[in-house]
UniProtKB/TrEMBL annotation:
SUPFAM superfamilies: TPR-like, Zn-dependent exopeptidases. It comes from Desulfolutivibrio sulfodismutans. One of its GO terms (cellular component) is outer membrane-bounded periplasmic space. Residues 134-154 are annotated as: Disordered. This is N-acetylmuramoyl-L-alanine amidase. InterPro entries: MurNAc-LAA_cat (IPR002508), N-acetylmuramoyl_amidase_3 (IPR050695), TAT_signal (IPR006311), TPR-like_helical_dom_sf (IPR011990), TPR_rpt (IPR019734).
């Protein structure tokens, strides 16, 4: 009997080991213009003591976030115009689950250099606003003082968000936990797919993201969970990709419930960055639908990645991460099965712009299709969504354990 994907990972075959994360992060930061902070050579290690910023970066790469924060606070106190120190301080706070001081650090960096659009984008992500309240009595949405009434699904998501935030900020100390970023697809005016009943993909994705995060949080495994959005806001592809870098993601999972022309397409489908082969029919349909919507969402450019540098990032990182992403997807598919859906999905490569933008192992999860009547009925049912989120959470925890043992339990 052939070895399962999990058995292969546990045997050490194809494991995306922890050092690759630090190397990837240093590589990207160096290409983005921070060579003095994150060089990879042995010489840079010996010079770290002489360069406080380099030393702080090495602490951050090693998962010693509290030590990095203390060091960077000393640097910014001594040099309040040090833009790079404030940017690193913001990243350190973000990775430790402290968005408020992270936002303050990024804003200080922007006071020094208002033209830094990438840091501005990170600040906007951390400053995202909550789901709109219900309308004031006697007004209509669009009128002064009026807002649209929150749907039942939005109210559920609001409660889940509050519970998740209340239980967050307890990241374990030490060498650093497995870091998961969950991306709730679409948001704001980008509603995504729409089912026959009017159910919107953006609401389904947000509720599933929050439910999955809460399930993982409740398992108390030590995994650090971050979300690209926790409310009904619009995020560009660049902003979503920036979250993977901001939180130093070991795995980035984007949740969706697309609508495609073929209403027979059903089930849980997992997609990774497209390799050398072509796309199957479902992958092509999903990529066409999602890329069309993603292109309609304006966003900040990826600062520091232009010309040759952008090409190096795409070529060097994409080759490395495509394999890791495919292995994670195979593990997830093996563990989660079909979930509550009758249709059988699978794992395939897809030309999704989001996957091409994320510089980390990334999986695009189509959690059923709103264009399929049976899938839409499952996604409209709160209990079935909870069941789906629980199965995905178990699969993610299993994949993380198999990958490098950072999340136990």
């Amino acid at each position: 009997m052939p070895m399962s994907d999990i058995a292969k990972f546990q045997a050490g075959k194809g494991t995306p080991a922890a050092p690759c994360r630090a190397n990837r992060r240093r590589f990207l930061i160096r290409l983005a213009g921070f060579a003095a902070v994150a060089a990879l050579s042995p010489l840079s290690l010996s010079l770290a003591a002489a360069d406080p910023l380099a030393a702080a970066q090495h602490l951050l790469d090693a998962g010693k976030v509290e030590e990095a924060v203390a060091s960077l606070r000393r640097i910014t106190a001594a040099d309040p115009r040090n833009e790079r120190a404030f940017i690193l301080l913001g990243r350190a706070f973000a990775q430790s689950g402290k968005p408020a001081p992270a936002l303050a650090a990024f804003r200080e960096a922007l006071r020094i250099n208002p033209a830094d659009t990438y840091t501005r984008m990170l600040a906007d992500i951390l400053a995202q606003r909550p789901i709109p309240d219900e309308p004031v009595t006697g007004t209509k949405y669009g009128e002064k003082g009026g807002r649209r009434s929150a749907s039942r699904l939005e109210k559920t998501a609001r409660a889940e968000r509050e519970a998740f935030v209340a239980g967050n900020g307890r990241l374990p100390p030490g060498a650093g936990p497995f870091r998961l970023v969950i991306d709730a697809g679409h948001g704001g005016p980008d509603v995504g797919g729409v089912g026959a009943s009017g159910l919107q993909e953006k609401d389904v994705a947000l509720d599933l993201a929050l439910l999955t995060a809460r399930e993982i949080q409740g398992a108390d495994t030590g995994m650090a969970v971050f979300l690209t959005r926790m409310s009904d806001i619009r995020l560009s592809t660049a902003a979503r990709a920036a979250c993977a870098d901001l939180y130093a993601a070991d795995l980035f999972v984007s949740l969706h419930a697309p609508s495609v022309e073929d209403a027979a397409v059903s089930g849980l489908h997992l997609f990774t960055r497209q390799g050398g082969g072509g796309q199957d029919a479902v992958a092509k349909a999903v990529a066409g639908f999602e890329n069309r919507l993603a292109g309609a969402v304006p966003g900040f450019p990826r600062a520091g990645l232009h010309g040759v540098e952008a090409g190096l990032v795409r070529e060097g990182v994409a080759r490395r991460q495509t394999g890791y992403s495919a292995r994670y997807a195979a593990l997830l598919a093996e563990s989660v099965g079909g979930g509550p859906f009758s249709g059988k999905g699978g794992v395939a490569g897809a030309g999704l712009s989001l996957l091409n933008a994320v510089d980390a192992p990334a999986v695009f999860a189509a959690m059923g299709f709103l264009s399929n009547a049976k899938d839409a009925a499952v996604l409209a049912d709160a209990d079935r969504r909870r069941e789906l989120a629980a199965s995905l959470a178990r699969a993610i925890l299993s994949a993380a354990r198999a990958a490098n043992g950072k999340a136990s339990g």
